[in-house]
Amino acid sequence: MIIILLGPPGAGKGTQAENLQRNHGLVNLSTGDMLRAAVASGSEIGRKAKAVMERGDLVPDEVAVAIVAERLAAGPGTAKGLILDGFPRTVGQAEALDRVLAEKHRKLDAVIEMQVVDEALVARISGRFSCAKCGAAYHDTFNRPKVEGKCDVCGGGEFTRRADDSAETVKARLTVYHRETAPLLPYYRARGLLRTVDGMAEIGQVAKEIDAVLASLGRS
Ligand code: ADP
Ligand code: ADP
Ligand code: ZN
After folding, report:
1. pTM of the entire structure?
2. How far is the CA of 103 from the centre of ligand 1 (A)?
């Protein structure tokens, strides 16, 4: 089973991908996380991606496609099921994904669109932080750790904020989303793969809606 989570920055893709990974044993493949790891490691890809990410632009399609294809070829556990979080982000990437999957005789089961209005996204992104150890996502207002200062998932006590989560960069990222990524909605709708959930609902409710989509695909 291969599911794409599609939505603007701050829609809740990472939060829901984490849930799916925990509750359904699907492997979460986040191109944003992989790129941030590349930046942190100072690799060739990371050095090139750093400035692009900080200004809220997209890295070139070839780079995004290469990291996903590599992970699909080598990744442990990807045979069971996969969630793609943050990929594809352009029609070019979607076409490349189609080719990669065809080569591996695998198919896309569904594209889940998480609908959130732009006005809500700035608040979501400016309050976002995550566990430095396991990456679990939190929010200053909407999703605080159950015990103050302690990660619910791993118990870690250190948290980080992303360099690109500033109010200025968010605007650039939203513009890029509408221009480059939103065209994927008609692309997948035309192929009967698009399912839409209300991303404005609270986190648990969104998770239920996504579970219902998975159940309708014959897997709950
Ligand atoms: P994305 O991966 O789509 O950029 P995240 O999952 O990182 O989005 O969520 C962005 C921020 O909003 C995080 O701080 C997260 O805790 C919070 N968040 C996620 N889903 C919801 C929701 N349904 N309602 C309120 N806040 C949410
Ligand atoms: P968000 O959670 O806000 O949706 P991500 O963590 O998915 O953001 O991505 C962070 C940044 O990494 C993007 O703004 C972009 O610069 C880069 N990036 C991530 N995925 C892709 C992709 N598929 N294609 C191009 N750039 C990407
Ligand atoms: Zn943690």
Report:
1. 0.94
2. 34
Pocket of ligand 1 (CB under 6 A): 7, 9-15, 124, 127-128, 137-139, 142-143, 202-203, 206
Give 32-40's long-range contacts (Cβ < 8 A, gap of 24+): 32/85, 32/86, 33/85, 33/135, 34/67, 34/71, 35/59, 35/67, 36/162, 38/67
Eight-class DSSP state of 11: S
Per-residue pLDDT tens over the stretch 150-177: 999 999 999 999 989 988 899 999 999 9
**Residue 143, SS3 per DSSP:** strand
Instruction: Find the catalytic residue in 47, 48, 50, 162.
Output: 162
The tokens of 81 are what? 């099921």
The token duo for 204 is 């648990």
Q: Among 90, 111, 115, 101, which residue's Cα sits nearest to residue 193?
A: 111
Residue 7 tokens read as: 């939505």
Bridge-based pairing of strands 128-131 and 194-198 is unpaired
Rounded Cα gap, residues 73 and 68, in angstroms: 9
Q: What is the pLDDT of residues 46-77, one digit of tens each?
A: 999 999 999 999 999 999 999 999 888 876 66
In this structure, the residue with its CA closest to atom 23 of ligand 2 is 87
